[in-house]
Amino acid sequence: MTSLTAFTVLVVLVGLERLAELVVSKRNAAWSMQHGGRESGQGHYPVMVVLHTGFLVAMLVEAWVRRPDVPGALAWSMLALVLAAQALRWWCIAALGRRWNTRVIVVPGLPPVTGGPYRFLSHPNYVAVVVEGVALPMVHACWITALVFTVANAALLTVRIRVEDAALATLPPAAPAARPAGPVDA
């Protein structure tokens, strides 16, 4: 199998993974709405869908048209980052449980999730998206796609994070972490 064919298979697998995410997202969004969820930021959602779909198509077009020479060290290091981004993405999905979806929907009364990767970052899923946006195309030295997607995604994330933070601000604060049993502080 050539590196171009292997790269194509990788991108197709990521595309299939995205379809699986959409199935989970749709189910979870329905659950949220059934529990009084309120959606915010509907206006930017179609842009996000087009950008992320275009990202997958663009890197394949670039790879097949440019047919770049790909140093093995670049391909393997970027593949490692892609796998790490996928692991982080699914850790986010697991931590949010039924509350994870690709839209911005909050269920009133439920406090923000503060477990899993959310202990360390406010928006860990977007870290995964940013890393993947650079790493996936660079598995096959598709630097044009990596650059264009990164710039466009930065603009989109500026809007998305603002919308998400505003929606999350409507929720009650997370419960403070339980203190371990022991002597009372003096």
Overall outline? elongated
Cα gyration radius (Å): 19 Å
Number of discrete domains: 1
Which spans of ≥5 residues are poorly predicted at pLDDT below 50? Answer: 178-186
Reading the helices and strands in chain order gives HEHHEHH
Text of the CATH class: Mainly Alpha
Helical content, roughly?
55-70%
CATH architecture: Up-down Bundle
Question: Strand count, sense and closure of the main sheet?
Answer: 2 strands, antiparallel
How many strand segments? 2
Quaternary organization:
single chain
Short description:
It contains five helices and two strands. The chain is mostly helical and 186 residues long.
Written overview of the protein:
The chain is mainly alpha-helical and 186 residues long. It has a single domain (3-168), classed as Four Helix Bundle (Hemerythrin (Met), subunit A), CATH 1.20.120. 65% of the residues lie in helices and 3% in strands. It contains 5 helices and 2 strands. The chain has helices at residues 3-34, 45-66, 72-96, 124-138, 143-168, and strands spanning 38-40, 104-106.
